[in-house]
Amino acid sequence: MIRHHSPLARAVYQDFLGSFGEGQLAALRGSPTLEERSGRRYWYDSYRVGDQVRKRYIGEDTPDLAQRMALHREDARRKKEGAGHRARLVRLLRAEGFLPIDGGTGAILNALAKTGVFRTGGTIVGTSAFRLYEGELGLRLGSDPAAGTDDADMARFERLSLALDDRVDASLPESFRDLEFSSGPGPNWAAVWKWKQTRSGTVIDFLTPSIRSGEGIRDLPALGVSARSLDFLDYLIADPIKAAVAYRSGVLVQVPRPERYAMHKLVVADRRQGGPDAPKSRKDRAQAAFLIAALARDRPEALRLAYEVAIGNGVTWRDRIAASLKRMPRTFSVLEAL
Fold first, then answer.
1. Which of 176, 193, 301, 338 is within CB 3.0–4.6 Å of 228 for a Cys-Cys bond?
2. How many other β-carbons are positioned within 10 Å of the β-carbon of residue 334?
3. What are phi and psi of 292, to 5 degrees?
4. Which of 255, 262, 267, 242 lies closest to 304 in space, CA to CA?
5. Which residues pair with 162 in a beta bridge?
6. Mind giving me the DSSP string for 19-71?
């Protein structure tokens, strides 16, 4: 049974999402500070990571740079007021039953947002994205067994999967070092696509659409990391949407459209290691069924178009979707009735 959040909760989420505006476009992670050394003055970007303050060099003090920093401080003042409003909205969302997010994951998402990952094309995929449809669709995800997980799992992203293009502003390894992430044994931080935070165990997988079949691991030089190339990923992350994470004063991220997510799950469910009866395959089908049932009622045209595009992608797509739907007669009937 699909349950929706209250009209109040849905209105609060839309206010929450809309409150970000263009406020996430600042290039600095923290506050500009001026320091004097040997009679010369230099600007630094001072920002907090956990209980530590880090500094990143901006440049030597000049009238032009000083004016830019003054404008940044005024912009920061306005953002602080907006952040206070969003923090109140976060409290309202939690009072209305929105799932919380653990502090460690929230801090990671916040750091990635400040680095420009989501603003310049990074998209959260996998169950981490599914959890964020709670606000977009107004659904109580964690309370329904069809979601394929329970409240505790939904509240914590044990693994973040990020689909990336080659367009993020800053080098990601610098941000990961600040957050105590390691890429595994050896000194080469950019050689792998999987990063693990030492203190929490949270894992981030970097993924990118395949250019050619069997591509494997592909370097993303502009980001300073590598990513695992995956087939079918370009369909999933085409035309993504914004989502607001209810952490502190909010974090603006990016997720696939839910109708595309559902179709993509039908495809990957049939190609998981271990076959269609593997736990991950069953979870894929459960998430697809849950979203398709909800979208058929609330957004049937968007669902119909996503289905048509997916089966129009060629024989491989049609065969894999058909194989999944053969195990999902109720979901098949929903799609056929569109």
1. 193
2. 19
3. -65, -40
4. 262
5. 124, 206
6. TTTTTT--S-SSEEEEEEETTEEEEEEEEEETTEEEEEEEEE--HHHHHHHHH
Q: Kindly write down the DSSP assignment for every residue of 131-174, as one continuous string.
A: HHHHHHHTB--TT-GGGSS-HHHHHS-SEEEEE--S--SS-HHH
Classify each residue of 130-147 as buried b or exposed e, where b means 16 or more C-beta atoms within 10 Å of its C-beta. Answer: bbbbbbbbbbbbbebebb
3-class SS of residue 120: coil
Tell me, what's the pLDDT at 25?
Answer: 38
**Quick check: pTM over 0.70?**
yes
Determine contact, residues 162/207, Cβ cutoff 8 Å: yes
Asked if 208 contacts 227 with a C-beta cutoff of 8 angstroms, the reply is yes
For residue 148, pLDDT beyond 70 = no
- Name the token pair of 159: 């693994």
Q: Rounded distance, CA 302 to CA 221, Å?
A: 36
Report helix angle 279-298 to 127-137, nearest 10: 20
Residue with the two structure tokens 């003054």? 70
pLDDT (average), residues 163-190: 62
pLDDT of residue 45: 84
Dihedral angle, C-alpha 283, 212, 314, 323, nearest 10 °: -30
Largest CA distance in the chain: 76
In b/e form, how buried is each residue of 71-86, taking b as 16+ CB within 10 angstroms? ebeeebeebeeebeeb
Phi and psi (nearest 5°) for 52? -115, 145
Please calculate the CA angle 95-244-197 and round it to the nearest 5 degrees: 100
What average pLDDT score do residues 188-217 get? 72
| The total number of residues written for the chain in this structure | 338
Full strand arrangement of the beta sheet holding 31-37: 31-37, 40-49, 52-60
